[in-house]
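stuck on this fold:
=====
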Amino acid sequence: MVSATNDLTGKLALDTQGLGQLKQSARTGSPEALRTAATQFEAMFINMMLKSAREATPADGLMDNQQTKTFTTMLDQQLSQNLAKRGVGLADVLIRQLSSQQVNAQALAIGAEQNGQGANTSLDLTSLVPKQAPHSLHGKEQALSPFATGTGAKASASAVPATPGITASGRVQSPHVRGFQEKLGSHADEASRTTGIPAKFMLGQAALETGWGKREIRNADGSSSHNLFGIKAGPGWKGKVATAVTTEYVDGVPRTKVEKFRAYDSYADSFKDYARLITNNPRYEKVLANATDASGFAQGLQRAGYATDPMYAAKLTRIIKHSLA
């Protein structure tokens, strides 16, 4: 049972004094300290997911400002603390794995302390991997472990750990982001081989155009047009067409219009058509030239007139760097 002096789940997320006590007790390596540290790490993990989800959602409304962002951050931290009190399963997995690996709870406590002080929650999980970690775990426990290299894979001390839902840079992905990647990743990889554009850049653009697949352009019968990139059906288009309401910016002012868009038989066809458009249209030559950098790629698209939204490049860059990096 967790000692009352170390149980932070009933305290404010920003209680740095309590977190300091947790860090001190973690040095003893007791099971109670490990349980408390694991629970705090679980709270930090939840908070990272909330932060990632908010970063992937444009927040440029009239009521959005620095003050509202500050209070939202505080709310998310407290919500994470409350959810961790109930538990989502991660703390139990951490305790089982770390106990078998003889990892000191202090590493988790330090991470929890950083979270409580409002530090950047893009935690480098490699700092928590023991130097002599066992080679593998099996079954569901491996799939949930932040030290696993993937389902069915074996982890070693020399390998870079990867949690399902955590990017290579240590950022947490929301379930809808990971689902979007898994659904379209192979098509993006194929288009990348054709265009030279990194797959995640195109996935980011598809996410921006479709709202992570939630606002796809629909055919008249309600079925998907599979148009992931908002490509319109101009006079030269001989394929199927879907009509949809869209927002265009004229001199910076948004206007609602009804436009015709290209429709495809599959998402693979959408990526193929996008690849043809980018590589064959001279206006996108500079986009391809700057495709090694997320910001350069996004700004190149906007300068080439791909979209009329004045914030298009900023939104696309944010998605690529914060949700897919």
